[in-house]
Amino acid sequence: MDRPVLGPGDTPPTHLLGSGEPSAGKSEARSAVGFRRAAVVLAILLVAVVVFFFRTLVPEATAGLEGAARDFFTLSISVVIESLPFVFLGILVSILVRVWLPADFLFRRLPSSPVLRRLLLSLLGMLMPVCECGNVPMARGLMVKGLTAGESMTFLFAAPILNPITIITTQQAFGWDNGILAGRIAGGFFIANLVGWIYRDRQPGSVLTPGFEETCATEEHDHPTAGRLMQSISLFTREADAMMPALFIGAGLAGLIQVGVPREVMVALGSDPVWSVLALMALAFVVAICSNVDAFFILSFGATFLPGAVVGFLVFGPMIDVKMLALLRTTFTTRTLLHLTLIIGLCSAVLGWAVNFAF
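Above: the chain sequence. Below: its structure as tokens.
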């Protein structure tokens, strides 16, 4: 069932938000990983140095590598460079929601109807120009704050497509021709709300990883003002600890697949109304490019592929790719991710085929 909606004077129930101080055992466990948190901060600084180094010196640094190895290294680093700022921005927004907003802030402003709640959450991305990488920590923060998994998924999958930067760049790349922009906006909005509706009654234990489910159950929400800064720092290191390994794994997989799968094979399928959609969806899964710039990336394929294939790329890619699956695995179970991939993939393919046969 959907979680109860609270009135202006109510506070969220403790079984949704968690309450009180963590147990002594949990406090000791958190103290035991204090060194690890500090190490994460140092690792982030190291990553920044490495990214700067390869941003400016990649041609020289990779000159001695063989072609495939150099391509893999360059592609993987480019995914990290593109994604890292948005991951950090998403973590900061998540901290704002989890620590600095009052516990009942969201509940007092969301509609009482579950359908209207999800519709509003799917439009929240219009206020936050963050690509899909940064929306994962934001969605985690919404669940910690008390939203259901279905509600947070609605935001998670709609936001990267409906955010203003994505809409503007898509319009600049394709205009209103061939239904590409309209198909992307309408498709992203519909699929995100469909996913939220499918998961509206799912219990957290059947959807979330045990570690994140425990976080939702034990997170403190009424922080003293004097302690909020330290709480923010702790949450930043904790979220970075979860996100950074996933980001690097996803980037490595994206680079490996791009090197191993010849792009010529996909281009050869571009004129077929059915296979062209599947080919560009596969490309979107592989290249793992952020939604803010993916329209300009796929523009070069526009003369080769049918418009429905481009729509499939622009809708499926921001929701599901190798990088996103690695990031989402920090929060959702493998079974849930397989289910989500099937739903979103099928809907994106049907949308692309419909555009092909309509235009």
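The radius of gyration is 21 Å.
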